[in-house]
Amino acid sequence: MGQPENEYDNGPLRPPPPAPARWGLSRVLRLATGVREDILAFVPGERAQYTSMGGVVVGTAIMAMLSMAAALYWVFGGFELFIPLAVPVWGLFIISLDRWLMSSTSMGQVGRAWRKLLPRLGLSIALGVILAEPLLLGVYNTAINERVAKDRQQEITTRESNLRICNPVPGTPEASQPAAHDPKCQGFKLSLGGDSPDALQSKLDDLTTQRDALNTTVGDDAKKYAELEQLARLECNGTSGPGLTGKFGAGINCKRLRNEADQYRADHKIDENGQKLSDLNGQITDVQTKLGDARNNYATLVNAKIQADLDEVRARQGRVGLLERFRTLDELVSENGYVRITQWAIRIFFIIVDALPVILKVLNGHTTYDRLLEKRLSQQERVQNMRSDEEIDRSAQWSDVVRHEHDLQRRMEFERIDETDRIERANYDERRNELIDALENHLMRTAIGPASPGWEPAGREHRVVDLDAEAPTQEFTRPNASGGYE
User: Fold this and answer.
1) Where are the alpha helices (DSSP H) in 320-465?
2) What percent of the chain has pLDDT over 90?
3) What pLDDT digit, counting tens, does each position of 410-428 carry?
4) Where are the domains of the chain?
5) Across the strands, what pairs with 485?
6) Could you please report the per-residue DSSP string of 78-115?
């Protein structure tokens, strides 16, 4: 009896391999490693090893799901409906990636194995870094929350202090301090609307400036007008003096001086300016009254505005987000060396755990299963190459058959054309001979008269041909494709 061609053949000298284990937890875990049960059946002693590695792959996927769930929860500031859908998809992606890393990593030849291993190990480490960060935030969650709450409260306290320093009650000692006029206070000035003492004081100062300027103008104009009016009165009364005629009555000079006084009053708008001055005095009185009330209520208004501003800051702070957690963790690490050491220790631990499937594959080395798998793949490759070669040979042979058939059809077509040409030539010769014979008979009858019955020219059999009728022809058939004639 012949030996089996390879160790997978079930020859008479080798019993069939044991059937793969039934579906259960162990086989499900091995499924996560990408192992082939039909090959693992030849080495049942390695099933426990691959089952353990499958547990590592599943554990890594569970950690990835927890990391993604924590990251999404912190990013969106709470639970969202899509999180239970996104987290399993992420876990399936991680388990598929780890399955590919384990099934595609083989420790056969050392050089080739390391060329395959290093990119896969780098990919698993990079993935571990991504997954480790959200888990680190979960480890330091209490410290981060306390620090964030402290920082937020400090922000509130600092802003309230700046608002009170930059918005003192007018008339108090704080209002005269340099801190109240510091350039940084430009961003902390509160807008109190029309009731702000500062706005009212500014308005009062402006009105006072306008009133003083207008009061000066009105005084000067009134003084000049009084002088012109006095001069016209003296002229009309006949009073003697410089520039006066001394004649009583409304003469020419009296009227002229009176017109000059009236024209000056109209040109300088003495009446209108007087009314404006009266209005400005009324506005100043009103603003002074409002300013007094505003100063009395300023502290209450400032407190209300400060509380409204701080409420806006608290609303803007909201829940603690992912970036704020990372920033707070960096602050804790920079302030505490122990935290820095523990952070890196935990980060490295998570990275190693995430890269553990590939690391375990390396630590296991080149197992019997790997060797059997390589042989099986090599044999399958040879079989596939043989099949490809057979297909190529079969295709080449068929091409020869097709080419030979085409050549045969071409030769038969040539022979058919030649045969047709021969038949056409024979028909043509026959028709020519018949015409010659008919012409000869006609000439003989014309030359010697009608021949006696039974007479024929010697040397050729002649037939009487009617020249007006169509010459008789001998029908020849054409050859068909099978070599006969139609």
Assistant:
1) 322-335, 337-364, 368-448
2) 0
3) 888 888 888 888 888 888 8
4) 25-139+336-366, 187-318, 369-486
5) 479
6) S--TTHHHHHHHHHHHHHHHHHHHHHT---SSHHHHHH
